[in-house]
Amino acid sequence: MKNIDDLMTSAAELAERGLSKGEIADELNVSRETASWLVERSDGPQAESTQEAAPGGPEDIHVDWNAIGRDSNRLGHVGAAMADLLSKQGEEVDLTIGIEKAGAPLATTVARELDTDLGTYAPRKHQWDDDDMDDLGGTFSRNFAQIRDRDCYVVDDTITSGTTMTETVQAIRDQGGEPVACVVLVDKQGVSDIEGVPVYSLVQVIRVGNDE
């Protein structure tokens, strides 16, 4: 199990490799605020030496599903379980959209199980570092299937705040498509729908405790 020092070390290593803070958030399955805090507290090249980070840090939950992702057999079984959650949602769906990066391999297994085409979406957070997110935009990969006014499923690994899933749903609609349902491995927020689209998860994380 990773502790906070391990996460800081990982954040520093990823920063040294040139990843943006948004990409680091994606790699570590934490919020953008947590990723920024980890980088600033680490010794990475993006550390802010002139500003001391808040000692307590953001409140977040780190999700490590490496035991699934590193094994194609396990990944296939998990993808089948995620596909099962979607199987009764829309008889005419013939496209599965995976949110890059980690959602793409999961979407591949889901698409195979449900016999759909496969597309991928790179969210704007991958470009985010310290600039305003409102000035950035996500993209659908031209190497995979395009929306073309089709109904589709949306697949990702985790929901942390719901921002990326919301962005993806809106981007699909902007392309003339209609998201029928979303599925993730882990939902940190316990959401039932996003923008009117039902959301399913294999695991929901619920915080229990005093908010004081």
UniProtKB/TrEMBL annotation:
User: Is Membrane found in the keyword set?
Assistant: no
Region Disordered, residue ranges? 36-59
Q: What domain of life does the native source organism fall in? A: Archaea
Q: Does the keyword Transferase apply?
A: yes
All copies of the Phosphoribosyltransferase domain together span 65-189
Q: Cross-referenced InterPro entries, in alphabetical order?
A: GcfR_halob (IPR053401), GfcR-like (IPR022854), PRTase-like (IPR029057), PRTase_dom (IPR000836)
Which NCBIfam families does the record cross-reference, listed alphabetically? PRK02277.1 (NF002620), transregGfcR_Halo (NF045507)
Q: Name the chain's protein.
A: Transcriptional regulator GfcR
- Organism of derivation: Halorientalis pallida
Q: What is the lineage of its organism?
A: Archaea, Methanobacteriati, Methanobacteriota, Stenosarchaea group, Halobacteria
